[in-house]
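Inputs:
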Amino acid sequence: MDRNIYLSNISLDKAIEIYFEKIKDLKMPIEVIKTYEAKGRITAKPIFAKISSPFYNSSAVDGIAVDSKKTFTASEKNPVRLKEGVDYTTVDTGDPIPDECDAVIMVEDLIKVSEDEVEIIKPAIPWQNIRQMGEDIVEGQLILPQSHKIRPVDIGALIAGGVFEVEVYKKPKVAVIPTGTEIVEPGTELKVGDIIEFNSRVFVSLIDEYGGDATRFDIVKDDFEKLVEVVDKASKEFDLILLNAGSSAGREDYSRKVIETLGEVYIHGVAIKPGKPVILGKVNQKPIICIPGFPVSAFFVMENIVKKVVAYLQGYDVKDKRYIQAYLSKRVTSSSKYLEFVRVKLGFIEDKYIAAPIERGAGATMSLVKADGVLEVPEELEGYEKGSKVNINILKSEDEIKNTILCIGSHDVILDIASDLLSKKGKFTLSSAHVGSMGGILALKDRETHFATLHLLDLQSGEYNRPYIKRYIPNRKIALIKFVKRIQGLMVKKGNPLNINSLEDIVKKGARFVNRQKGSGTRILLDYELKKLGINPREIIGYDREDYTHISVAAQVAKNNADCGLGVYSAAMIMGLDFIPVAMEEYDIAIPLEYLELEGIKQFIDVITSKEFKMELDKLGGYDYKDLGKIIIE
Amino acid sequence: MDRNIYLSNISLDKAIEIYFEKIKDLKMPIEVIKTYEAKGRITAKPIFAKISSPFYNSSAVDGIAVDSKKTFTASEKNPVRLKEGVDYTTVDTGDPIPDECDAVIMVEDLIKVSEDEVEIIKPAIPWQNIRQMGEDIVEGQLILPQSHKIRPVDIGALIAGGVFEVEVYKKPKVAVIPTGTEIVEPGTELKVGDIIEFNSRVFVSLIDEYGGDATRFDIVKDDFEKLVEVVDKASKEFDLILLNAGSSAGREDYSRKVIETLGEVYIHGVAIKPGKPVILGKVNQKPIICIPGFPVSAFFVMENIVKKVVAYLQGYDVKDKRYIQAYLSKRVTSSSKYLEFVRVKLGFIEDKYIAAPIERGAGATMSLVKADGVLEVPEELEGYEKGSKVNINILKSEDEIKNTILCIGSHDVILDIASDLLSKKGKFTLSSAHVGSMGGILALKDRETHFATLHLLDLQSGEYNRPYIKRYIPNRKIALIKFVKRIQGLMVKKGNPLNINSLEDIVKKGARFVNRQKGSGTRILLDYELKKLGINPREIIGYDREDYTHISVAAQVAKNNADCGLGVYSAAMIMGLDFIPVAMEEYDIAIPLEYLELEGIKQFIDVITSKEFKMELDKLGGYDYKDLGKIIIE
């Protein structure tokens, strides 16, 4: 085992400072390009206006140009009559002002007397309604400073100021090289151990946003000689090299040695999490960065290091992170050894942003898709308490976040369907965090969600949901929107090879079970049914193995990771499993009474009570929706 | 005069609602493209995962895969010894887990005994350190809803979920047609009345940001038949037509008639200011929008209407306006007939955003370049009082705004030079609002600026600046940073054709003067000198004609709009004017004592006391900087 396990743990800011010092002579050369093609480029020099705009006096309105002295006596009692060609010239907005004139009277203030005569009833003030020469831009004036990223409006001002070509830094050409023996091109027939390569595609797309020009290389297998050859060649043709994978301390880690063979490693290991094993170096006078293979680590290295390097090569400093202040819906712990990036969902509840850290069960790439923002826990802190006011780096616009309905609670695929139907309507989106029914109740109690989805069986009364709401949220008026009744049952492989027909059979047949997490309605139901049957949970193999959604439990069974699990009919169908009904349960929505008036909630209720939605329920099967939309207020 | 003066005044929201209803059948067709090329495109269908990711159980760490049952007895006292090939398999992060194993032990927890044997001192918990199949993405799971704009991270999740091609709406092809007899291509030799065409270049660049694919047409002169021909042809090849200019009620307004000839005008006139005369119509089953010619109007029509239309054609709703809350530094009045867009500068002073409406003297295109944000005054309001808390649509990131040093006060070109030198350093930018010395003092008093620049002569003591600070800001500790002494003088045309050698000569020679605005130090100096000489300001032609900067006064003289003006030496030199010294004055910086500790201010002081800056002053001439950087605190 040949592993590079000695990583440094230098702070992000320090790492960047050191690296910039090392690559300070590698900045991009300057090129001259057409102004109208300069969007997103960085000015290499300050840019001054070559001409004034306007370069003559012009009318600011539609009307007539006059010599103001001829109008001084005008009043309602004594209108002044003016003749075209003699006393006035008709002008439109932008027209030049004749030399003898010093004011423009608006068309609305003219009384037409004949084809070429008008009367006015008040005098014109000298220079009224005239855009003076240079009013917009004065020759010699600074239009843009150096190191400025050119925006569309800048292009307008530059051309108006007579600047038709600009000096900018060349766009860095970036080589994106995916490496690893285990990664395969999308479309390849997959065998166990293969990983579909997609990081490079994300990188290319990010580099485009950062203002670079990226080229994706073919996958390079873990062959040291080959890797050296490819990197050497790339470093001669590109301005920045990104090597993906192979920068963790794994066996197949050639990246560091490749760089050391061709050039120099300056930093290996930065105190960020995820993203720690990043390598910063130089090969053939070109910066090279090795990015960890785990997609979430890769993303944070791109956003926090590569983005800055692409900017730095063009003499630019990135300043576009956007933050809002939010309240944390639960405690976040973090190591004081790292700057930690925690993905969060955001909701705007009662005029406050609520940040809900994304549950651990969430997948890697999907958690990035679902994240609304990132909490950056500084190196010196060990985390934040629940309820803390924190700064969140937002990944969406505030408008989007404010138009997001936050649902925290128990998951069902029908939420995805409702989410999709709502998105189609345009304005609102549904964002759901899957923390189980009890998690939803607690979020509702703490005013951290718009609504909760739940299916909680009260063991005493046998009633669903209402007893829990009354017990846990006694001081808030909560309405219950009836959603669906759904069948919960055992999901087993097609053909039911172990012939499991009841909960008892799990133990009898020694089947491998996969459970749901604590606090989930499905788990409470399981425990209730097991108790009724007098089964000790300890007898079930895999009782402690937790998954977070119905569909992921179904997937475990489908791929023979388990023999059975408890879940809803639709999840079994999607995964092509057999289904043994165990109980019918009530899956409802708990929502503070006053939220029923919110526009987004109204649209959401429209969606779930629509024909289209019910048709989708029929397609899935296993749902009874005869009470759907009934609102219970007490 | 043939003018379309009857415009409707429908609200922005209503106009868009009506227009969308009219063009609802003109949405873009769907196309299938490679996932990795889909950044910025809008999903036409919900997208579900085709495979799970990972599609097998894999190791989450580097270590050994084991059957947990074999480890249950391990403790510090009784280590368990495991043999490679028999009891364990070495795995790296991402490696598949062999069928007989159900846990991974991290390499850090292994005690190496021999080449193929290790000992462990605690048991492995079943499923520890294993990334379960489908942990990230489960087959059949919704990855993206319909009507979603695809981001780089989405591309990763899609490919990971086995989705290599996506159904998206085609990008709308947008024809940008500049029209008008007065507009000319950049580079044409200019004659009075010409306007350089640049709006179309701004539009093309904005359309790119909006997710459309724009083509700029050659300028079409105001020839009705020609315009009809060009629009007709464009409407057959493009998905959206933008006609620029000709939509105000001016004489040369053919746009409306062009549309009416080929199709239908739905709306002409929307209650926004600027931007009112916009036209929304349809030609040959393609939406067509006529955009006013004034660049600022054009910009707001693009941002508030065209952007939404480009999105709507792709089934998308724009949600990316970003707002912050700021305090208004002065009263803003607005007509209750319009939704009004007021450009503002933003500063972050003492933990509050301050919004300073951009002065009226500011030019059109430059005011867009300089604007940090836009205050949207709703139709039903007549404005806001000074100090009001308002929402500002920000055009820069909050980071940029927070790294902006706000200077409100008297203008001098040396501020532009300092601004450029500061920008080059990377982090901070200087943003200066030119409102004259008194305006600066008041902003400082109201805590609305980081510092003020001023040159105010106390008529009693003959001393500069300090008496004003003491008088107007008695309750705040203000430091005075000595900046420069500069010569103020009369700027006259090269060769001094009217032979003006003193202020008296302005009256004697009947010269046309151009003055500075009230409250400016230059105006106070003029009034002081006139009083000393016993000259009645009323005798000066143009005494009431106000301009806002030295350089624009100089430009007026250079282009023969005036015969003389009072200003600084450097402005006269830039504009190639002769200069008759009148007085030496002290141009200084007033700054609250505590701000001297701000990092941005320190960098600013470094810049103005640098050799490079002084060299620039020498180049300009007319500045005495021997006291530069001296700080007077009392």
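Chain B touches chain A through 122 residues (CB under 8 Å). Flag for discussion at group meeting.
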